[in-house]
Amino acid sequence: MSPTEATIWPMIAHVALIFCLYALLALRRAAAVRAGRAVPGQFRDNRDEPAESLWVRNSLANQFELPVLFYAVSILLYLVDADNPVTVAGQWLFVLSRCAHAYVHVTDNRLRLRQPLFLAGFIVLGLLWVWLGVWLAFT
Fold first, then answer.
1. Staple 54 to which of 16, 49, 70, 131, CB 3.0 to 4.6 Å?
2. What pLDDT does 93 receive?
3. CB-based contacts of 119: which residues, under 8 Å, 6+ apart?
4. Would you state the pLDDT for residue 123?
5. What is the pLDDT of residues 25-40, one digit of tens each?
6. Angle between the N-to-C axes of helices 85-106 and 51-62, in degrees from 0 to 180, rounded to the nearest 10
7. What's 3-138's CATH class?
8. How far is CA 129 from the centre of its chain?
9. Torsions phi, psi of 120, nearest 5?
10. Residue ranges of domains in the chain
11. What confidence score (pLDDT) does residue 48 get?
12. Mean pLDDT, each 10-residue run in order, the chain (139 residues)
């Protein structure tokens, strides 16, 4: 597999995480309704959602914030042929940080654990953008 092809797999892995979070959200909401802790109408307006599904909903929303920059840099690295084994490793580190962040978010939701995971992904993503800028400036 060339580095260019390898650039695509971390994006696919992140999309898989998003689909898993959607499935988990559906399961947790259905469980809350069955247990009488919620009624379906609560989810329409996102009011008074039980914590176990609220955490998943918030985690899912997080996957459409910082990761937007991940997709942009990944596609640009691919398009300008600036990807290499180091950038692919960085992409995988970002995705792993997002998976770990999401896991903490949907389990005990401790900020003390979530914050360093977010920061790790943020730094890796910043470095990918710096690399893209350097590549464009000097090629």
1. 49
2. 98
3. none
4. 98
5. 999 999 999 999 998 8
6. 160
7. mainly alpha
8. 17
9. -60, -50
10. 3-138
11. 83
12. 85 98 97 93 84 94 96 97 96 98 96 97 98 97
Residues 6+ apart with CB under 8 A from 17: 63, 95, 98, 99, 102
Count of positions (residues) in the chain: 139
Supply the pLDDT for residue 57.
95
Decide: 91 and 128 in contact? Cβ < 8 Å: yes
| Confidence at residue 3, expressed as pLDDT on a 0 to 100 scale | 72
Count of CA atoms in the C-beta half-sphere (13 A) of 14: 28
Tokens of 105: 């978010």
DSSP 49: -
What is the end-to-end Cα distance of the chain in Å, rounded? 24
Q: How far apart are CA 104 and CA 90, in angstroms?
A: 21
Q: Which long-range contacts (CB under 8 A, 24 or more apart) does 13-22 make?
A: 13/92, 13/95, 14/63, 14/67, 14/70, 14/71, 14/95, 14/98, 17/63, 17/95, 17/98, 17/99, 17/102, 18/60, 18/63, 21/56, 21/59, 21/60, 21/63, 21/102, 21/106, 22/60
d(CA 88, CA 83): 7
Whole-angstrom distance, CA of residue 121 vs CA of residue 95: 8
